[in-house]
Design goal:
Chain lengths: 333, 333
DNA sequence: ATACGGAGTGAAAACGATTGCAAACGGGAG
DNA sequence: CTCCCGTTTGCAATCGTTTTCACTCCGTAT
């Protein structure tokens, strides 16, 4: 392993000079600096992250914290986006391991231990108490799709997206629209607000009997809601699902009852998964901009880091886009 | 931040003693050692990873390297499995960033820079030249579903799995079976071998005109193959797809032609994604044991690390399981 | 009683980088 | 030629651990 000292010897200068030459940020480096850099390159010098972190307390490393979300395509693409964003800005990404202590899982200690520069929290459930303990830790933190005291936040446009979806559905003539989701403490509860607003603006009555609770990406509770809907006297012409996964699954559940989509009933999902584009009829859904969210999150975080701040403030929202598929059909006015 | 020295002062001993007390591995620690540990705990002492790494050249940190696979449910659950396995054994997981140099992406340098203890490679494509440069780097490396000189390997039971699938299909009476996949340099080429073997053992003629090339998880090439199959004079009774994603997509493509699954044609996928269980008819497929593979990989790697070896040898295979769905129907003998 | 071996401890030297401080240097003005 | 001021450089300390080496202490064998 070639060290600063080796490069210094090769250049006939002191290690301090080499360090400065390599870290200098000026726009037009002097001949001497260029020479040192050239030699360092040639020798294959790479700084030692541990030594640097020890001295500076910085690691160019961001911790990422999530729970049980990897299987969701939306989240895994979000995480991939985080990685790309971090890479672009010269940071690495480390999974924050959950080392146990007496009372629960400890993330902060881990982050400190590794001298991480910041933390990104990706979590489907709101306000996990384990996460809450992060907020006071003096490390800049950005939370995705969640609101946490003292942390920066990046939201998907949950309310606005659902609103757009409702309008779209309304524009195709639907007046009896059911909503599945709105689970307390999940993003779908934010969307419920958008649903109400969209209904109000489109002159649709948001009938309480057509609003059903279900968890995000939980087919079980979702199909339960579907059952209730189908057992009602008056049936909706369109059902909005909490996520694409459940929505696609529902097509089969409906087919098993002899109900065709979209001929007999229209449906729409939420997320914008790849399968939705592939299938026939193509899924009508709202595509969350996971790449945009990821990049915003990393940007907020790295900005705060490079300003040397201990916390991140501010809220940003990434706008998604309506995906007009074929699962919502036009119905007679 | 509380350091070794602080603990030492509080205990009235030297830092060296504290270090030894905390790192001692003996089964029954002496009273004195227990006391030091107690004090350290109480003071909230956490070792500094950077200092430790600097001194020992170990980081309890494993690098993970992959390309463009995050969107695949199989891969993201594999990565989640890796994380869990690493966590279980006291390691963290860091994404290996791809810093560029003149000729391509450089992973090794990054791994060295962070003094990573080992590397796990997850990659759909065989023999990427970028990866190859890893092998000589003196870091223990385990490759998933791939064979690379000087690296440990964990395989999914590609051939055996496909063989089982073929037998299952044969046992339901199918004699005309088409195979899509077998792409050079991808895992599906291994499965092609299993296909031949399964056919041979089941007395099925593996007809070359029913073997079609397609990339893994590439609907485009897959549907092209499907077209060819459907245009043939004699049609197969069952089609085996390279992955569940394409297979599920194919159901729609078939439906668009008025072909029903499984009444008119039987199909099976490969991977075992969640959606397959949810849909109706439930997807017949072969579920790869991604958790098992991940755990094997981490175990091989951490074993080598703790033995202080510079490379990993050995090949392990994780056995998957046949998922008998409803997309392959029994046909008349 | 003396010598010896083992266990435990402390002092101090690393590991490889950054950085405050002071000295050396270089260029322009007088 | 000298002086002054701004820039560059080197020295040395430091970050928090681990680890070697020498030493002490104590129990046991001779």
């Amino acid at each position: 392993m070639v060290t600063l000292k080796d490069v210094a010897a090769a250049c006939g200068v002191s290690p301090a000079t080499v360090s400065r030459a390599l870290n200098a940020t000026g726009d037009n480096p002097s001949r001497h600096v260029r020479y040192i850099r050239h030699v360092a390159d040639n020798m294959g010098y790479r700084p030692n992250a541990a030594a640097r972190a020890l001295k500076t307390n910085r690691s160019d490393n961001i911790g990422i914290l999530y729970e049980d979300v990897m299987q969701h395509e939306y989240f895994s693409s979000l995480i991939e986006g985080l990685r790309l964003g971090a890479e672009k800005r010269g940071y690495d990404l480390t999974f924050l391991a959950r080392h146990f202590d007496g009372e629960g899982k400890v993330y902060v200690a881990e982050a400190e231990y590794r001298s991480l520069d910041g933390i990104i929290v990706v979590q489907a459930d709101y306000a996990s108490s384990r996460i809450l303990s992060l907020t006071g830790c003096g490390l800049p933190t950005v939370v995705v799709d969640n609101r946490l005291e003292g942390c920066g936040t990046v939201f998907s446009d949950n309310a606005a997206g659902m609103e757009k979806l409702v309008r779209h559905v309304a524009s195709l003539g639907h007046r009896r629209v059911a909503f599945i989701g709105g689970d307390e403490g999940s993003v779908t509860s934010l969307r419920l607000g958008g649903f109400y607003k969209g209904c109000a603006e489109s002159g649709i009555r948001a009938a309480p009997e057509w609003i059903f609770h279900a968890h995000y990406r939980d087919p079980q509770s979702c199909f339960g809601a579907l059952d209730s809907i189908l057992m009602g006297d008056v049936k909706p012409t369109c059902i909005l699902f909490p996520d694409d996964f459940c929505c696609i699954g529902a097509i089969s559940a409906l087919a098993a009852r002899g109900i065709r989509v979209p001929e007999d009933i229209s449906i729409a999902g939420y997320d914008g998964v790849e399968m939705g584009r592939l299938m026939k009829p193509a899924l009508t859904t709202y595509r969350q901009d996971s790449d945009g969210m990821a990049d915003l999150a990393i940007q907020m975080l790295t900005d705060a880091i490079s300003r040397g701040e201990q916390s991140v403030s501010g809220i940003a929202t990434a706008e998604g886009s309506l995906v007009e598929g074929e699962t919502v059909r036009m119905i007679g006015g």
